Structures are given as C-alpha cells and as structure tokens.
Amino acid sequence: MAGDTVLVSSSPRFDVYRNDFGWGKPVAVRAGPGNSISGKLVLFPGIDEGSFDIQTTLWCDVLVNLLADVEFLEHVTTMV
C-alpha cells in the first residue's frame, strides 16, 4: 500500500480465546509477521467480556513520532 493508509481487519466468526488446541488457554492473540503491513490494525474480541485486543503494525519512524506526541500519550493506557 502506498501513502497514508490504515487497514483494519478481523473476523467476528473466530472467537480466538475459546479455541483450545491442547496447549492451554490462550493469553494473547497476534496476527503473525506474514500478515503485517505498516498501517494495519487487527482487532479481536478480548478475553474479558466487552473488551478487545488490538495489534497494530507501524513503521519505526511512525512509532518515534507517536512517542513524541504529548497529546497522543495522554490517551494511551498501559497495562501492568
């Protein structure tokens, strides 16, 4: 993709946290490196009711600019 593009993908048909492949209960979901392009957001229903998980792929210069953006950082939450 060229230019300033944001792509959002997911599937409401695939409940990732209720699948058990014999490895134990999933604790996180990732789309994988083969499915990553800069500007792509992948959304999954979260493990807790009403929550959702977001995976975003951005070029490193975009991340540097976001970390320097005070207004953006005021709205970011950190999980401990």
TrEMBL record:
Q: Gene3D superfamilies from the xrefs?
A: Chloramphenicol acetyltransferase-like domain
- On whether Transferase is a keyword of this UniProt record, the answer is yes
Q: Which GO terms describe its molecular function?
A: transferase activity
Pfam families of this UniProt entry? Transferase (PF02458)
Q: Which UniProt keywords apply?
A: Transferase
For this protein, the record's InterPro entries field holds:
CAT-like_dom_sf, Sec_Metabolite_Acyltrans
Q: What name does the UniProt record give this protein? A: HXXXD-type acyl-transferase family protein
Q: Which organism is it from?
A: Brassica carinata (Ethiopian mustard)
